[in-house]
Amino acid sequence: MVVNVRLLGFFQMMLGRMYLEVSLDSNATMEDLWHFFEAAYPQFAKDDLRRIAGASVNAVYAPSEEWATTALSDGDQVDLLTQMGGG
Length: 87
Known about the structure:
By secondary structure, the chain is of the alpha+beta class. The chain has a single domain (2-82), classed as Ubiquitin-like (UB roll), CATH 3.10.20.30. The chain has helices at residues 10-15, 30-40, 47-51, and strands at 2-7, 19-23, 53-57, 60-61, 77-82. The protein has a five-stranded mixed beta sheet with strand order 2-1-5-3-4. The longest helix has 11 residues, at 30-40.
C-alpha cells in the first residue's frame, strides 16, 4: 500500500521537503511508518526525536503511544509534525 505523508515543521526542515509517498506492507501501522523513517533517514532514529513527534491519520490525531495499534490503509493521508509546548 502507499500512504501520503505530509511533513510539517521540524520534519519538513530536516528533510527539505513537504510531501512523500511511502510504500508499506498492507497491514502496516503508524509504528511501521516511523520505523520506515528511522531506516531511510538516520536522523529519525535519535531517541529524543520520537518524544516530540506527533501525527494525524486522515485528520485524526494519533498519539505516539497508540502508533503500534493505529492501522494504516492504502491512500491514507498522514501528517507528521512536532508537538509544541507554550507558556
